[in-house]
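Tokens in:
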């Protein structure tokens, strides 16, 4: 079973800016700064807005139905294309789906989910 690990944290804007400033100062001093991969939200409420039940349903549909385009995903989910595009962009920015962009023809994008489970790590 393939598992996608996603590090999710809650940080205020001030905390995020302080982290950035600290990294910038370390770089100025010539120190190596290890990049931290993760997604941070300002609050639990903003996290809930990002990972909605409809977006989780899209992940499941992409995994099980293997749509060949966003238009096909819209048909399968019985949702309009504008909502699908918005949700897919959010899921892609959270690193929960991969988009394979075709170079030929209509340049359609194919959403893919290549894992079976999401392991969320939430910093407190």
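Residues out:
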């Amino acid at each position: 079973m393939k598992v996608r690990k996603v590090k999710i944290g809650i940080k205020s804007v001030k905390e995020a800016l302080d982290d950035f400033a600290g990294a910038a100062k370390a770089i100025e001093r010539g120190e190596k700064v290890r990049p931290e991969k993760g997604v941070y939200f300002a609050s639990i409420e903003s996290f809930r807005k990002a990972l909605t039940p409809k977006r989780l349903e899209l992940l499941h549909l992409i995994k099980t139905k293997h749509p060949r385009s966003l238009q096909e995903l819209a048909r399968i989910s019985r949702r309009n294309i504008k909502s699908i595009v918005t949700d897919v962009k959010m899921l892609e920015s959270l690193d929960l789906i991969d988009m394979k962009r075709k170079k030929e023809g209509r340049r359609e994008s194919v959403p893919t989910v290549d894992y079976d489970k999401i392991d969320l790590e939430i910093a407190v």
